[in-house]
Amino acid sequence: MGMIAPPDRTPLPRAFFDRPVLEVAPDLLGRILVRTTPDGPIALRLTEVEAYDGQNDPGSHAYRGRTARNAVMFGPPGHVYVYFTYGMWHCMNLVCGPEGRASAVLLRAGEVIEGAELARKRRVSARNDKELAKGPARLATALGVDRALDGTDACTSGETPLRMLTGAPVPSDQVRSGPRTGVAGEGGNGDLHPWRFWIADDPTVSPYRAHVPRRRRG
């Protein structure tokens, strides 16, 4: 008989993601994301996420319906949605809920637990390892995630560049919630959408920043 993989290294099943996004988001804390690269793997323990509920959520990319950009958000669950923002950065999400109903969890921050030397090469401005993936753009940069990985299945046990593992779920008394970072209008209202979730007192969690409108030049 073959060796049984330890529970924390087993892939998360697709059924984990085939649930309402507000159930999936806090349950992702403590889970492990593995990025396989030609130079070796990087493993990240998730410490901060944000939920986005599609056409029910004015803060979501899918609020106004399906487009070429957000198509992956409409399913199947367990796939990776990557978008490009501010003309500079990529951000990574995990698709949730039943196929055809757009929702996703933005991966905001994490602790690099394997492959830190590879992440450091991509995040040369990080002052220490706690900052390698402290924020959604930093997380994607540290892992080398871009639009080429949009649509990747993160629930397969086969060869894949991104895979979600069971990890160690965080006890509910250690989970905190609050307003989403940098979201404008109603979607950023913490009373209506306290949909950012993080591990209490974890040093890799990014600081909260309210939305600031960008000024037009000229």
UniProtKB/TrEMBL annotation:
Stretch list, region Disordered: 168-188
Family of this protein: Belongs to the DNA glycosylase MPG family.
Keyword DNA damage: yes
Keyword terms, alphabetized: DNA damage, DNA repair, Hydrolase
Highest taxon of source: Bacteria
Organism: Streptomyces bangladeshensis
Residue ranges crossing the lipid bilayer per the database entry: none
Enzyme Commission no: 3.2.2.-
Metal-binding keyword on record: no
Protein name: Putative 3-methyladenine DNA glycosylase
Alphabetized PANTHER family for the sequence: DNA-3-METHYLADENINE GLYCOSYLASE
Cross-referenced HAMAP family: 3MGH
InterPro entries given in the database record: Formyl_transferase-like_C_sf, MPG, MPG_sf
Uppermost EC category: hydrolase
Database matches in NCBIfam families: 3mg, PRK00802.1-3
Cross-referenced Pfam families: Pur_DNA_glyco
